[in-house]
Amino acid sequence: MIAAPEIPTDFNLLQESETHFSSDTDFEDIEGKNQKQGKGKTCKKGKKGPAEKGKSGNGGGKPPSGPNRMNGHHQQNGVENMMLFEVVKMGKSAMQSVVDDWIESYKHDRDIALLDLINFFIQCSGCKGVVTAEMFRHMQNSEIIRKMTEEFDEDSGDYPLTMAGPQWKKFKSSFCEFIGVLVRQCQYSIIYDEYMMDTVISLLTGLSDSQVRAFRHTSTLAAMKLMTALVNVALNLSINMDNTQRQYEAERNKMIGKRANERLELLLQKRKELQENQDEIENMMNAIFKGVFVHRYRDAIAEIRAICIEEIGIWMKMYSDAFLNDSYLKYVGWTMHDKQGEVRLKCLTALQGLYYNKELNSKLELFTSRFKDRIVSMTLDKEYDVAVQAIKLLTLVLQSSEEVLTAEDCENVYHLVYSAHRPVAVAAGEFLYKKLFSRRDPEEDGIMKRRGRQGPNANLVKTLVFFFLESELHEHAAYLVDSMWDCATELLKDWECMNSLLLEEPLSGEEALTDRQESALIEIMLCTIRQAAECHPPVGRGTGKRVLTAKEKKTQLDDRTKITELFAVALPQLLAKYSVDAEKVTNLLQLPQYFDLEIYTTGRLEKHLDALLRQIRNIVEKHTDTDVLEACSKTYHALCNEEFTIFNRVDISRSQLIDELADKFNRLLEDFLQEIVIHALQCTHYVILWQLAKITESSSTKEDLLRLKKQMRVFCQICQHYLTNVNTTVKEQAFTILCDILMIFSHQIMSGGRDMLEPLVYTPDSSLQSELLSFILDHVFIEQDDDSNSADGQQEDEASKIEALHKRRNLLAAFCKLIVYTVVEMNTAADIFKQYMKYYNDYGDIIKETMSKTRQIDKIQCAKTLILSLQQLFNEMIQENGYNFDRSSSTFSGIKELARRFALTFGLDQLKTREAIAMLHKDGIEFAFKEPNPQGESHPPLNLAFLDILSEFSSKLLRQDKRTVYVYLEKFMTFQMSLRREDVWLPLMSYRNSLLAGGDDDTMSVISGMSSRGSTVRSKKSKPSTGKRKVVEGMQLALPEESSSSDSMWLSREQTLHTPVMMQTPQLTSTIMREPKRLRPEDSFMSVYPMQTEHHQTPLDYNRRGTSLMEDDEEPIVEDVMMSSEGRIEDLNEGMDFDTMDIDLPPSKNRRERTELKPDFFDPASIMDESVLGVSMF
C-alpha cells in the first residue's frame, strides 16, 4: 500500500511547521525553500549508463551517431513536438489515437519519444525553448530546467493555462485528458519499465519547484493529473489482487484430486507480479505526493492550491482504502482557512464527494469533530458560492448523522433562508427541510391517503408556521417560501390542508391555532399561491422574470386551476370568519388576483362569486384601514375584466357600492370640506406664484400683469374671508398664505430693477391689517393649556405641545415679517410688543428681533409704538380694575417692568436715541393728561398714574433734554397741581423728580456716546469773551407736537425762559489714522462742541437725512458710563442684547460679524423660502 506521509494523525497543527497552512501566509517560496525533496530512485533521472542506453529502440546497440543523423533527429523532433502540442491544443483529434501514436514512437525509440514528451510539457508551459537530444543525454533535470528558465519569455505573463479565447479554454481539459489517456494506455507495461515514469515524474517535480509561475502551474497540474491516473491504476491493481487472491483460495480449498497445481502456480505468479506492480505504483505516487503535493498545496498562487485540493479529494473518493484517512484529510481541513474563496470552494466540493457516500462516514468522524465548527462558520462566507457549498456540505453531514450538528449549529443555517442571495437561501431551505420536514413517523403511514386537516402534511404545515413565528422576521414570509420551493413543493402546495386548518374545528385532543399562528398561516398561504401563479422569486431574490419552459407553463396553469377551484368556494368563508381582522383580510383579499376567472363560469361557481362580492362589500363598510380598502380596490379591479363573462355581475356590484359610498360622502361632505378648502387654498397659492415667476422670467404684457393683479386681489379677499372660518386649520392656512402673498406682492417686488411689476404691488387696507392682528391675538398669544387638548379630551404629550408651540411661533414670525418690511403699519406692532413680558419664554426672541428691526427702520415711530403698547396695557388695567386701582398691584408692576425692559432696549447711546426718547415722553405726557378728572381740577387726571410708568424712560434723556421735557410737562400742569402732595399725585411728583434729577446743572462732564465711525475730535478749550467765567450754552430740543395745531411747538421761540438750545451738527474731523483719545474729566461739553453765542438757534431737524449724529448706519462707541443711582447692573446686561449697543469695531466688520452671529430673518431674499409656510423664521 501507499506509504502515508510521516505526519501525525491527531491534527496537531502547531507541530506541522513545514506543511502547516495558515490563512495569514501567502505561500511565497521564491527563495528555493521548497527544494527539500525526498528523491528516491524514481525521482532522479541522472545520467543514463550503458545498460540504460542499451534499452533504446535500436536492438540494444548504440544509436547511430554522426552529424547527419543528429541533424535529422533534431528536425524530426521539432516537427513532432509541434504536432503533439498543436493536436492537444486544437482538441479535434481523438486523444487515444494521439497517445497510441506516441506509444508506437516510444517502442521504436524511447529516447526520442521521451524527448518529444518533455518538450510537450515545456511548450504547454508557454516556454519557447526546446530541449535538444544533446541536452537530454548529457544534462541533469535541474540543468535543463535552468536552461529553459533562461529562455522563458515572461514579458506577457500569459501561458496556455491562463490565456483567453475559445481556443485556449478547451486546452486545459485536453491537456488533462492527454495525461490520463497516456497513463491508461501505458498501465500494463511501459509505466513499469523504470524509465518513462521516472523521467516524467523527475521532470515535473523539478518544474513544480521553479520560480517561474507558468512552469510551476503547468507541472503541478500535470503531476496531479498523473497522480490521479496512477491512483486509478493502483485501484485496478488492488481489485485484481483481491480477485486473484479469491481465485487462489478457492482453488486451494478444492480436494487434492480436483486441485490444479499449475493453476495455483499461475495464480501465485500473477499475484506476485500484481504485488510488484502495485509497489511500483505506490513508489510513484509517494514520489509525486511528497515531491509535488506537499509543497504546492500551500503555493502562493491560489489556482495551484486549488488544483492540489481538488485532486486529493478525487484520490480519497476514488481509493478510499488508501487515501481516506486523517493523514490526508488534514490537508483539506487546513486549507478551509485559505484566504481565497476559490481554494475554500474546492475544499468543500471535495468533502461533499466524501460525505455523500454514507459508507465512508466512519472514516470521517474524527475529521468532522475537528473541523465541524469551521464548516458551520463558512455558511456566512463573504463568497456566496462558498457559503452555498458549505450549507450543502452540512446537509450531507446532517443526512449521515443527525447527532453531529448541535441545535446551535442548525440555527446558524436556519436564518439563511431569509438571505437576499437566492442560491444561499435555497441551500438553507433544503437544509431546513431535511432537518424538520423530511422525517415521517411510522404511525403516519396509515394516514398517507387522508387529506386536509387529517392528512400527513398537517403537522408539517404547523411546524412551518411555528418556525416562521420563532424566526421573528414576519415580513419575509415570501423569502421563506421561495427558499423551500424547490425541495418542499408538495408541502407548500397543499392548500387544501392549509384551508382546513383555518376553517375546520380542531380534532379531539388537538390544540387549536392561536390568532397569531392563523395570521402567519394566511400569509404563508398567500406567498405560496403567489409563487405558484407567478413562477418567479420575490423582489430582491432574482434579476428579473425568466422565460418559462413548456413544462413550467403547464405546471403554472394546473396550479392556477387548482387554486381557483379550491378558494373560489373557500375564500368567502375565510373572509366571513376573519372579516374584523384587518391583517388577515388584507392578505385574503389578494387571492383573487391569482384566480383563473374563467373557472367561475365553466365550473358553475357563480353563487360563490356572489358570496365573495357580498363579503367584499361588508368589509368596505366595516374597515377604514388604508391597506384593507386598497386590497378591496385591487380585488374589484382583478374581477372586473371584460374578457370574462363575470364582468357584468362584478361591475353591477361595484357600481352599487360606489353609489352607496357617494351618498354617504355627500352626507359627510361638510366634514371633508375644510380639508378640501385647505388644499384648494394651497393649490391656488402655488398657481399665483407660478404665474408671477413666469411673468418675472419672461417678457410680459400689461394685460398679463392686470390679469395676475386681479387674480391676486380676489384670492386675498377669499383668504381674508376664511380668517373668520370656524375651523382653526383653515384659518391658519388662510393666514399663512395671506402673509406670504402680502410679503411677495409688497413694494419689495420692484427691487432689483423690476419696476415693471409696480402694478402688482398690493398694500393691505386697515380692515385686513386689523383681521390679521386679531388672528395673532386670538391664536398665538394664548395659554398653553387652551391649545393642548387632544380630540379625546386628554392632554397631549410633551412632543405635541412642542409642535403646537412651533406652529404658533411660525404664525407670529410671518406677521412680524410684515411689520419689519412695512407691509402693515408699524403701530400694529403695539399689540405684539405688549406681550413681551407675558410670553417671553415662548416668543421673546421673535418680539425682541422685531423691536430691533423696527427701530432700524424708524426710531421715532418705533418709540411711539412702544409707548402705545404701554398705553394699551394701562387702559386694559383701567377697564378691569377702575381708576382707583392699587399702584402696588402685580398688574401695574408688570406694566412698569415692561416699560423698564423697553427702556433698556434703547441702549447706552443717548445721542442716537435722543429724538425717539423725547417723542416717547411727549406722547406719554399727553396721554397722562388726556382725560381730566370729572370731579374737578383739584383731583388728578384719570391717567396720571401713567407718569409713574413713563418715569422708567427718564434715565434715557440727556440732561438738557430733561429740562425741555420738564418745560413741556409744565404746560399741562396748573399751579395747584404743583402744590399737591397727596398720594394720588405721587406719579406726577415722581416723574417731575426724574426729570429734574441732573437737569438743573447746565454743564455736562461726559457725553454718553459718539459716532460709530470711530472718529474723535480733539478737545479744544473755548476762550470766553469775558474773563475766566465759563459759560456753557445748553441744548434745546425742539419737537413738533402732533396735535390739531401743527404750528405749535413744545416751547415758543418767544419764551422769556432761557432754555438751553442745541447747536447744529458739528463737522467732525476724521481721525481714522489716529488713535482715539478719551475725554479728560476737565474737558467740558463746550470744549467738544463749540457753541455760538446766540441763545436762539434753529432747532435740529431730525427728519433730515444726512451726516448727522443720528445717522442710521453709525455704530455707538461703548464708554464707561455710570448708570443711574438705581444701580441696576442686570439692566445693562439686558440692554446689550440689542443692535442699539454694539462693540467698538469698524462699521463694515461690525456688520459682517453680526451677520455671522445672527442671521437676518427679515432678509427679502428669504421671502420665497419655506420659512413662511413651515419653517421657524427665528
TrEMBL record:
What are the GO cellular component annotations? Answer: chromatin; chromosome, centromeric region; cohesin complex; nucleus
PROSITE patterns registered for this protein in UniProt: SCD
Q: From the UniProt entry, list the residue stretches annotated as the region Disordered.
A: 1-75, 1009-1031
SCD domain location: 293-378
Q: Name one GO molecular function term.
A: chromatin binding
- Compartment(s) of residence: Nucleus; Chromosome; Chromosome, Centromere
Kindly give the Pfam families that the UniProt entry links to this protein. Answer: HEAT_SCC3-SA, SCD, STAG
Q: Is Acyltransferase a UniProt keyword of this protein?
A: no
Which residue windows does the record flag with biased composition (Basic residues)? Answer: 36-48, 1018-1029
Keyword vocabulary terms for this entry? Cell cycle, Cell division, Chromosome, Chromosome partition, Coiled coil, Nucleus
Its primary localisation, in coarse terms, equals nucleus
**Do you know which InterPro entries this protein is assigned to?**
ARM-type_fold (IPR016024), Cohesin_Scc3/SA (IPR039662), HEAT_SCC3-SA (IPR056396), SCD (IPR020839), STAG (IPR013721)
Its job: Component of cohesin complex, a complex required for the cohesion of sister chromatids after DNA replication. The cohesin complex apparently forms a large proteinaceous ring within which sister chromatids can be trapped. At anaphase, the complex is cleaved and dissociates from chromatin, allowing sister chromatids to segregate.
UniProt subunit comment: Part of the cohesin complex which is composed of a heterodimer between a SMC1 protein (SMC1A or SMC1B) and SMC3, which are attached via their hinge domain, and RAD21 which link them at their heads, and one STAG protein.
Tell me which family the UniProt entry assigns to this protein.
Answer: Belongs to the SCC3 family.
PANTHER family xref list: COHESIN SUBUNIT SA-2, STROMAL ANTIGEN
Name the chain's protein: Cohesin subunit SA
Q: Which organism is it from?
A: Neotoma lepida
Q: Which lineage is the organism of this entry classified under, starting from the top rank? A: Eukaryota, Metazoa, Chordata, Craniata, Vertebrata
